[in-house]
Amino acid sequence: MAETRATNSLFFLDEFDLSCETASLSTALTIPALDxxxxxxxxxxxxxxxxxxxxxxxxxxxxxxAGNVEFEMEASLPGTGSRTIATLYGTDxxxxxxxxxxxxxxxxxxxxxxxxxILSVSGGWMTQDGVKRGLRVYNGTxxxxxxxxxxxxxxxxxxxxxxxxxVTAITGGATNADIDIESSATEGGVYVxxxxxxxxxxxxxTMTLSGTVDRWLRINTTDLxxxxxxxxxxxxxxxxxxx
Amino acid sequence: xxxxxxxxxxxxxxxxxxxxxxLNTASQNAxxxxxxxxxxxDSAETNIAxxxxxxxxxxxxxxxxLDGYLGPxxxxxxxxxxxxxVGIDSITYTWTTNAFISDYTIDxxxxxxxITWSGVLTASGAPSRA
Lengths: 243, 130
Description:
The structure holds 2 protein chains of 2 kinds.
Chain A: E1 9-13, E2 16-17, E3 22-30, E4 33-35, E5 46-48, E6 52-60, H1 69-74, E7 83-89, E8 97-112, E9 120-127, E10 132-142, E11 146-147, E12 151-152, E13 161-171, E14 177-184, E15 192-199, E16 203-209, E17 216-223, E18 229-238
Antiparallel strand pairs in A: 1-2, 1-7, 3-6, 4-5, 6-9, 7-8, 8-9, 8-10, 10-18, 11-17, 12-17, 13-16, 13-18, 14-15, 14-17
Chain B: E1 10-14, E2 17-18, E3 25-36, E4 47-61, H1 64-75, E5 82-88, E6 91-108, E7 116-123, E8 128-129
Antiparallel strand pairs in B: 1-2, 1-5, 3-4, 4-7, 5-6, 6-7, 6-8
């Protein structure tokens, strides 16, 4: 059995990687069983209903400014704007799965003040949209243009998909930096651009992938936008393939 | 009587993917609803059997390969349900294209431990037992 350390998990709230303030992280996916039992049945029958997802976390308050977990959780309460939540597991594998809640809102926000303990925070998020499952295509610091290694999604998709870019840091200032997501039918084959992220600041962006997306995906930085380097995490979803 | 240990004697296969190596807990449940037939003439509650609802609770240590088996179905249930087979020693319960994962949780709740998972494989209808 291949076990995976819990420390190989990541928790993004928008562009903020809050893993170092998180002690517990869980992603729950639920599909109700819709009863289809009829008078001729010999046992209860059902079909799958609509999926839903919930992310819960618990952690420690180590700061109270933007980028800290308490600040960002308060800022994701309903009425304060929707956020993007991403949970990644098995991050010791490049193409690890990522569960993404777009248009997410905080449905539980608790700060705890035990007399003999540590300032703690816990909460949960739900999404106004459906949960998506993608694979991480890249994670690291980019300091030059060019391509990165590709990730195998296992199969081609024909119904498009989605991409997410988390820009966590920029050195030197970026102006219209460009990163393409490219796909190919074979590893090392002919890669075709599926779309471009253009950014000038830290933040999170999404991109729709259209039509056929081949099974091998990679990123190609075509323009640093005057930046010396930037730290990014990129996730892609092929609809009907990765989830 | 020859008791049998669980390890090595239980297998679970979902959509032709073996989950066995990712399991450290599993139970197969057939919950039969009791139809109460008690009337004024009875001296105790009486029932007849209704229909069985089948499900398989599973869980264990998580990894990326396992997530590839279950994750896509957990976010987008398949139009055609999956085949589920539960092997217990020499017999196998099988639901052919009649199962789906209805709960799937990935849990990294203890930084010093491994990631764990749990799920419910909901089966539609009665299985074959062979």
